[in-house]
Amino acid sequence: MSGAPLRRVARVVLLDPEDRVLLLHGHEPDDPGDDWWFTPGGGLEGDETHEEAALRELAEETGVTDVELGPVLWRRICSFPFDGRRWDQDEWYYLARTAQTTTVAAGLTELERRSVAGARWWTCRELAGAHETVYPTRLAELLRRLLDEGPPAAPEVLDTEIV
Questions:
Q1: Is the peptide bond before 151 cis (omega within 30 degrees of 0)?
Q2: How do 67-82 and 41-43 pair as beta strands?
Q3: How far apart are CA 28 and CA 87, in angstroms?
Q4: How far apart are CA 44 and CA 157, in angstroms?
Q5: Residue partners of 20: CB distance under 8 A and separation at least 6
Q6: What is the tens place of the pLDDT at every residue in 78-121?
Q7: Are 161 and 136 in contact (CB under 8 A)?
Q8: Any idea of the CA torsion for 118, 27, 126, 100, to the nearest 10 degrees?
């Protein structure tokens, strides 16, 4: 990773009443075949808190605003290439629940419009059997533990992921 400061990111592990998790389907802007699934979220803007960024990004990317934001579940440092540059991030994953299962990606940035192909609710079983790339990579296992044991007492630090 470069020596530049890490981009501060808030992500949302959004669960519906059936404990399905909402993931966005992303791809390289110029190569839809290079694709993956990921949790909603994005970088903090200005003096935003992580909580404010999580809720704003969720609304922009999914249209879901009827949300009960819970604790930070996980933290992860990651680095990956996207759209011709390297992104080095410090990601905080928040638990959130909603009964609002219809999604509308009304607030996407220009880059997001070129790289987000939609959203889908996944069951834990579907995630565990998925052949698609999902970030964070252990999401199926992490979600299973979350549903079985509830949120951790303090945020769990996930392995650094460098793609």
A1: no
A2: unpaired
A3: 13
A4: 20
A5: 121, 122, 123
A6: 999 998 999 999 999 999 999 999 998 888 888 888 889 899 99
A7: yes
A8: -30
Which residues fall within 8 angstroms of residue 105, CB to CB, at 6 or more apart? 60, 61, 62, 63, 112, 116, 118, 119
Torsion of Cα atoms, 95 then 140 then 149 then 103, to 10°: 30
Nearest to 18 by CA among 127, 93, 98, 110: 98
Q: How far apart are CA 106 and CA 64, in angstroms?
A: 10
Looking up tokens 């440092």, which residue turns up?
A: 77
Q: What number is the average pLDDT over the span 31-56?
A: 95
Spell out the SS3 assignment of the chain.
Answer: CCCCCCEEEEEEEEECCCCCEEEEEEEECCEEEEEEEECCEEECCCCCCHHHHHHHHHHHHHCCCCEEEEEEEEEEEEEEEECCEEEEEEEEEEEEEECCCCCCCCCCCHHHHHHEEEEEEECHHHHHCCCCCEECCCHHHHHHHHHHHCCCCCCEECCCEEC
Beta-strand pair 31-38/134-135: parallel
In this predicted structure, the answer to whether residue 1 has a pLDDT above a threshold of 80 is: no
User: Is the pTM value of this prediction over 0.85?
Assistant: yes
